[in-house]
Task: structure prediction
Amino acid sequence: MNYISTRGKAPAVRASDAILQGLAPDGGLYLPESIPKLTLGTADMQDGYAAFATKLLTPFFEDDPLLPELGNVCKGAFDFPVPLRWLQNHSGGCEQNGSLQAELELFHGPTIAFKDFGARFLAGSLERIVRHQGKEITILVATSGDTGGAVASAFHNKQGIAVKVLFPLGKVSARQQQQLCCWDNNITTYGVHGTFDDCQRVVKEAFGKPKLCQQWGLTSANSINLGRLLPQIVYHYYAALLFADRSAAVAGSAKQRSVAGQTTTVWQRAVPSGQATTTGQLPTYIVPSGNVGNVTGAYIAKAMGAPIGDIVLAVNANKTIPDFLVSGTYEPRPSVHTLANAMDVGDPSNMERLRVLFPTHQERVSAMASYSVSDTQILETIERVYKQCDVPICPHTATGEWVRQNHYANKPSIVVSTAHPGKFESVVEPVIGRKLTVPAQLQELLDLPASMIEINPSVEELFA
Ligand SMILES: *Cc1c(COP(=O)(O)O)cnc(C)c1O
Result:
């Protein structure tokens, strides 16, 4: 499998090279030359998530030196659960308005947000690539909250790799900041006087300096890196299969009921291996989005053959994308600060990939829907979902739940739950009126000593 730049002016490379480079030499982002079709079923899930991931990612590493180690990379990276939670209302049914509704919980990793998937897969891959090439590297990562913590955690004490994390001072939660600053040894954290966009600009500027890149062996762990995109395909496919299995079981038991004329609890496993279900409607798939890396993974999963219906981007008050879908003109703008701060992005970096996957306005409008959700709506939604379903959700997930409730209430659907609510306790606890339990893995990080270096948004200060 070869990877080509979104800007089309760089040579095609293999996966390992694309992962090591981060950005392509022409400034573009790497995409697979073609999207492999792969029909997976529930039988492929029986050996666990890591084995499923290995199977799904194998075609992306064809002819790559990393292929023999792919299984070990996946085993090391994905060692936590990936559950699909069925939303139940107080009447006990797991359906709302007759349709199955689920949340895909991507927050059971070490830093309790979905970034762990990409960061851990990238770290495992890079560690092996660096070992093969024998030259040390430096990772630069700008973060609006969650990325930096996930990257620092994933790369902490990895041999031959130094990490510089940049975050906007005063624009992340106290717990997010602690997760960025509690590391030592090969991790250095910089608090930047500026916005997330400033942090991203400094990183881009550094990558634009060939001598600096050479000297430090610079590479990127931002969501532009292919090594983060690939693992973000896996869980969407996995969730879609879990959903299909349950819909088929529900359809099967409903049929059984009507035949027998009485209530029965027979649940059929109705999705044979290697065959996506055709029973029932495909779920609408709603992804809380910022840099749109996560949702790009969903589009690729669907193109590979995952049983996914419409894909919808939920965004906060940063509405570059919904405006783009209406006007047809892409207008990046400065980010505005919201309660869903990991999505405070005015110029989503992975948009460049989506614009290549859907090159015309026509194609974009038919493939994409996007809705902007305000801070007030986020708070109302956290309260509603807690009252109706007893499920505390984070502000990012709330954007997705608002979109489901207001635009897709009568359809089967999956909302991607991107972070544990306990990571945003200062927003969530007052709304639901109770304390959230702090997951053990977070408590461990909260108890560590913290340190950082304050800088202005400049490349010189970052490498001083
Ligand atoms: C990063 C992040 C998002 C946005 O994901 P993108 O891939 O940048 O679109 C949403 N929610 C949380 C909690 C995040 O950390």
Q: What stands out?
A: The radius of gyration is 22 Å. Confidence is low (pLDDT under 50) at residues 257-279. The first strand starts at residue 3 and ends at 5.
